[in-house]
Design a protein that fits this description.
Helix content is about 30%, strand content about 25%. The chain is α/β, with parallel strands linked by helices and about 160 residues long. Strand 4 (about 65-70), helix 2 and strand 5 form a beta-alpha-beta unit.
């Protein structure tokens, strides 16, 4: 799979200290996106899902302050199948999982994709919706614009059952 990069200690991509994977490729291309270099599907670099999961597990063992994994982008859901081993590694390590996407949960549910459902079943939170530059705010917690939602585990279950 292609990723733009990894941040091993982030405090802005979910609660606590997070290991963050930025996937490569985004069909949304939101104006004002803070990760425009992730838009090109040919950008970034290749990494195998198993290599990514192993790196995460090594980091989680080495850093007792790590509280979770965040998957961002680009658009992570175009890589849902490849991200499943990484999500499973987070669960194995007993750490939380946040997923950021430009799709709304309603759009994801309407696609009926088994890999999307499997990934979201493991998630503690989903930050959904396209970034809207005119709605940009620093008051939306871990979202970038006020139209985006942080959807918790219980609400996610309604869409992934």
């Amino acid at each position: 799979m292609r990723i733009a990069g990894i941040v091993r200690e982030s405090i802005v991509d979910g609660p606590g200290i997070r290991y963050v994977v930025f996937t490569q490729g985004c069909p949304h291309r939101c104006p004002g996106c803070h990760n425009p270099l992730t838009h090109d599907p040919a950008g970034g670099y290749e990494i195998s899902p198993d290599e990514l999961a192993s790196d995460f597990l090594r980091e989680s063992e080495a850093n007792p302050l790590l509280s979770g994994l965040s998957i961002s982008g680009g658009e992570p859901l175009i890589h849902a199948r490849e991200l499943l081993p990484l999500a499973e590694a987070a669960r194995k390590a007993g750490l939380g999982l946040w997923v950021y996407t430009g799709y709304t949960i309603e759009e994801i549910a309407s696609l009926g994709d088994a890999c999307h459902r499997a990934l979201l079943k493991m998630a503690d939170a989903l930050v959904d919706g396209r970034f809207e530059e005119s709605l940009r705010t620093l008051e939306a917690g871990f979202a970038g614009s006020s139209n985006q939602r942080v959807i918790g585990r219980e609400e996610l279950r309604k869409y992934t059952m």
